[in-house]
Amino acid sequence: MATENDIVAELAASAQRVVADGPGPTGARSRRSQLPGYDPSSLGLLTDLGWLGILVPEEDGGIGLGLPEMAAVVRELEKGLMGEPLLPYAVLGARVLVHGDGPARAALLAQVPAGECLAALALDFNGALPAVTAVPADGGWRLSGQAGSVVGGVSATHLLVPAQAPDGVRLFAVPANSPGVTKAHLWRADDTPLGQVALAEVVVGNGEVLATPAAAETAVARALDETRIVVAAGLLGLSEHMLAMTLVYMGVRKQYGQLIGSFQALQHKAVDLYIDKERAAAALQFGLATGGDPATLPLAAVRAKGRCSDTACRVARDSIQLHGAIGFTDEHDLGLYVKRALTLSAWLGNAGEQRRRFIDMGWALA
Amino acid sequence: MRDWNALSDEAFRLAARDFIEAHCPAHLRRGEEHVRWAQSKDWYHAMAAHGWLAPGWPVEHGGMALKPAKHLIYLEEWARAGISRVMEQGVLNVGPVLLAHGTPDQIAHYLPRILSGEDLWCQGFSEPGAGSDLAGLRTEARIEGDTFVINGHKIWTSGAVDANHIFVLARTDKTVKKQAGISFILVDMNQPGVTVKPIVTVNGDAEFAEVFLDNVRAPVANLVGGLNNGWRVAQSLLGFERVWAGSPHMGRQAMDRMVRVARLAGRDRDPAIVDRIAQLQLDLADNSEMYERLAQEIRAGHSFGFEVSTLKIVATETYARITELTLEIAGEQGGLAGEAPFADGPLVLGKADLLRDYLTARAPMIYGGTVQIHRNILAKRVLGLPA
Q1: B110 within domain boundaries
Q2: Which domain holds residue A171?
Q3: Fewest CB atoms within 10 Å of the CB: A33, A187, B342, B349?
Q4: Within a domain: A128
Q5: Strand (E) or helix (H) holding B108
Q6: 3 state DSSP class of B168
Q7: Could you tell me if residue B78 is inside a domain?
Q8: Does A254 touch chain B if contact means CB atoms closer than 8 Å?
Q9: What residues of B are annotated to the active site?
């Protein structure tokens, strides 16, 4: 019988092959400021591999693996700048659906593994619930308001909308083509789109309730923390890749008749990036080991996302510095990875934000 | 003799804790790094009498034969109880070196005398001109008949004021590459020509000394591992105990003090300070996670290598940063030596006042290879950067 570690290693190896055969940075470059922000054929491939269903329980039609397996996949895919379609739909959207307790849950969740349901969580910036209200209307609800930060919102089939109802926060699964839904977008640092959604008197039935007030806020909070851990894995993959690019460059670039990698000042800078990367791997490991239990999930997410965000940004900055002027050009692929690192470190709370949560949880002076 | 390795980790931990509780005197449990032999010898003899003195030695030589995982637990329990280090060079280094490279006569003669406390060892490696570049050492040993005649100047010799034996790296061939002309020699300090001069360190300790060797004699039979083979013998000293240098135990103790100081100084509600404490808590937590991962590898019987350098850098620099912020939080009281009065009460940490902590934290970034030397090692051996 395959052990958990075997599955993780196997998935990582498969993801490495996908990256090796994929469009890589050239593809990412060609998609800049283009909708939908990912390669549709990659989405097909990831669907065929079953990876959209990694985090969907078996009884709901998925393959029922956990965060370690998804993290292994995303960590590798980000090295080819190919993590984007999985993160909003197969991680965040899928996990919100999993934690729902309403009638919309089962049917939508069953469509996730085949890519028939691409559900995007409608949020405002910095993880805030969007300013959307739900007013009871004959046999259903009428939703109005805006959500300013909806990753994956541009091409989602469904928007998962937390809305303030008279009896508390309810979560609705709104078909993205519903009358009254308008979508716009901003561009993120890596030139992928950030959806912005407005709802004007959107009519939804009771069957579209994904979570009742008893479960809605917890469902969102848990899905966000689970996603933070997977994003942390993506940030670690980016860090590993940028450091590897930098070490290669230090081994070929000559100045003063010597390889720049032989200069001690630069060696120590590179070693510090390596140490940070090792530390980030340890923080991620902690997150994966403790992220499966709802009681320890928040700390797991805080530590993994905070450390990996911090590390990826530092590796990004110092990789530019160690590349010198070439690292400052648009032509060099390093910049694509730097911008991806900036995008993912900011999403769902950067290192400073995670530290604030750590303090709010009472851990700073524990 | 008990088979300690047969116990579960938890059972062994409890056994170690019980032994310490029963036998370690209170005056050695105040978290002071080093104490003199006069204060520690009863504890040393108690450990020997109960078989807890030599955790890494084989059972037939009076050791516990602990596997690394159990050995780490024993060290953790020492740290938890705040036990001072005792004269440890004999147990830590001389025993293992002789078992690996010594003659049967050397093993039979010296090992029992280490356990009995009759021979107290110190390590004669560093010299004024040979610190990080240890192989550049200049102490010389020339052979006259069946005797080495040794001249030189050793420094940073821990425990030399109490020791009666020193193991010395000395140059025995000046015509070859520097590493190839060094020998490892056991020297009795109880003879004319040996002068020990204590060094008072910046934190007020007199733990180290200089050792002057002026026509000091040692029988050729005291050579360990063959003539001009001393560099290789010395390298083999770097056993798994190096892992301990990467443990977060020093950082944890410093963190406990920092939180106490923050409360006493009323800075525990200052968001600017709390944010920085939070970062160091996270750094310490990740240091623990890295250490735990390596300890797990060791428990699983896997070999380890240069991760030790990574951990050493992380652990010592995290520890140092904690002491730095502590002093800053203390404010003007951080400039005091000794007890510090705060509005919410005086801070009494025994001998471990704030300033001492701050200064003490400098040492681990220097000894056992400076953190810069460890970065050199990582650059070459792990990152494969060119020379």
Answers
A1: no
A2: 119-213
A3: A33
A4: yes
A5: helix B104-115
A6: strand
A7: yes
A8: no
A9: 241
Domain that holds residue B209: 121-234
> In chain A, helix, strand, coil percent, each to 5?
55, 20, 25
Residue with tokens 């047969």: B6
CATH label of the domain that carries residue B127:
2.40.110.10
Residues B294-315 have a mean pLDDT of 84
Domain end (from A191, A213, A235): A213
Cβ contacts of A232 on chain B, cutoff 8 Å: none
Confirm or reject contact between A261 and chain B (CB < 8 A).
yes
Q: Residue B23: its pLDDT value, please?
A: 95
Instruction: Give the C-alpha separation, B122 to B119, whole Å.
Output: 10
State the DSSP code for A148: E
In chain B, pLDDT over 90 holds for what percent of residues? 71
Q: Are the CB atoms for A208 and A314 separated by under 8 Å?
A: no
Distance of CA A40 to CAs A12, A35, A318, Å? 21, 10, 33
- Tokens standing for B371? 């953190």
C-alpha distance from A283 to closest chain B C-alpha (Å): 6
Cβ count near B40 (within 10 Å) = 23
Domain assignment present for residue A229? The answer is yes
Total domains in the fold of chain A: 3
Q: Identify the residue whose tokens are 């050239």.
A: A26
A207 and A226 in a single domain? The answer is no
pLDDT bucket at B259, cuts 50 / 70 / 90: very high
Q: Do A267 and B277 touch (CB under 8 A)?
A: no
**Cβ contact, residue pair A247, B376, below 8 Å:** no
Q: Predicted confidence band at B242 (pLDDT cuts at 50, 70, 90)? A: confident
Asked whether A203 and A179 are in contact (CB, 8 A), the reply is: yes
Residue pair B324/B360 in contact by the 8 Å Cβ criterion: no
A12 touches chain B (CB under 8 A): no
The ipTM of this complex is: 0.94
Query: Cα distance from B148 to chain A (closest Cα, Å)?
Result: 40
Q: Which of B57, B68, B66, B170 has the alpha carbon at shortest distance from B115?
A: B57
**Would the CB atoms of A282 and B268 count as touching at under 8 Å?**
no
B238 pLDDT exceeds 70?
no
User: Is B278–A366 a contact, with Cβ atoms under 8 angstroms apart?
Assistant: no
- At A2, the pLDDT band (50, 70, 90 cuts) reads low
